[in-house]
Amino acid sequence: MHKTPISLASGYGNFVVPAAATRAATDLLGSGLLEVLPAAGSEALRTALVAPARPAGAGPLSADNVVITPGAKAALFALLKTVLRPGDEVLLPTPNWFGFAALVEQAGGTLRTLPLDPADDYALRPDQLRAALSDRTRVLLFSNPNNPSGRLYRRPELAGWLTVTRDFPDLFVLSDEIYNLINFEAEPTPSLLDFPDPHGRHLVVNGFSKSLALIGWGAGYLVAPAAVARACAEWQHATGCAVPAPTQTAALAVTRQAPAIAAELLAQLRPNRARLLDFLAAQAAIPPALPTATYYAYPDLRAYLRPDLPPAEAAAGLLNRLRQAGVDVVDGTGCGTPGFARISYAVSEADLTEALRRLGGVLGGANG
Ligand SMILES: Cc1ncc(COP(=O)(O)O)c(C=O)c1O
């Protein structure tokens, strides 16, 4: 066992907090007087979050559609808690973020997965989606860009899904867009908010801890039809309190500088991205895959699993071997795809280089 294990498993990057955020928060703290904000959040931040122009046909949005929450997880929970009724199902295409299962369960829903095919680049075709929806499905939940696969669902694909969901007027469509600015393609990540919402059922969650480097500040937000947003704010008021003002001030500062901050993060990430993708491409037993967004790769390591064991057990065995070699990655079993592993490259160059050397030692060896 190596003395110092290297973690490529964290969901948070090694990003420095943007100076404008620290300044805004410390200025406010220095003023000696903190305002207790309304449960829905500061009007200035909520307005700034819906300020970017949307395509023609997308509905108008205002601060009334936004609630600032203590992280994106809290935004997801508030929405699920608000819209789920007993017996309701949440349909989740997989692989997907391991955190969704507990959120759905805690909110009283039942998770149903819709496995997508890695060999088909995790495409979700409209007819496949239609076949998976039933009267019991209350929410279609997805992340775009996808955590863990790094797959970006582009505008025509989302439009195809929405031709199906509009035939289900009681269905909520919930898009987690927390990695939206960590996108290495020329086209920006499309938001669900860019599309018409014929039944007032589109819900979006986002945050500041991934694309805007506000790690550890505890801020996220939801955008929803005004009545749903109001219910979420009431729930937050009844069960907690508004996100503290210094955090919201910092969130406003990074929101105003979002394009520049995201561009810097992408520039920081690019060399490590190339390093990890080159390493994976050089492993003959790993099928080619090109994540175009997020700071993860999600290689298919099934060739390295013991064939005599059930997939989840074999995957745990492989991850254990990687851990013993001094590298922690996320087990794809929790994301719905045993035998895959989520590997973050939002770490220092030195850590990634050494981690890849250790990984190479295991993956270059024999199976079993
Ligand atoms: C897809 C996704 N949604 C939500 C979250 C939670 O974000 P936050 O730290 O803002 O609560 C994460 C964090 O890993 C995530 O990956």
UniProtKB/TrEMBL annotation:
Pfam families, per this entry? Aminotran_1_2
State its cofactor: pyridoxal 5'-phosphate
> Entry's SUPFAM superfamilies?
PLP-dependent transferases (SSF53383)
Boundaries of every Aminotransferase class I/classII large domain copy? 9-359
Question: Could you tell me one molecular function GO term of this UniProt entry?
Answer: transaminase activity
Q: Does the keyword Isomerase apply?
A: no
Q: Its domain of life?
A: Bacteria
Q: Which family is annotated?
A: Belongs to the class-I pyridoxal-phosphate-dependent aminotransferase family.
Q: What's the protein name?
A: Pyridoxal phosphate-dependent aminotransferase
Native source species:
Hymenobacter rubripertinctus
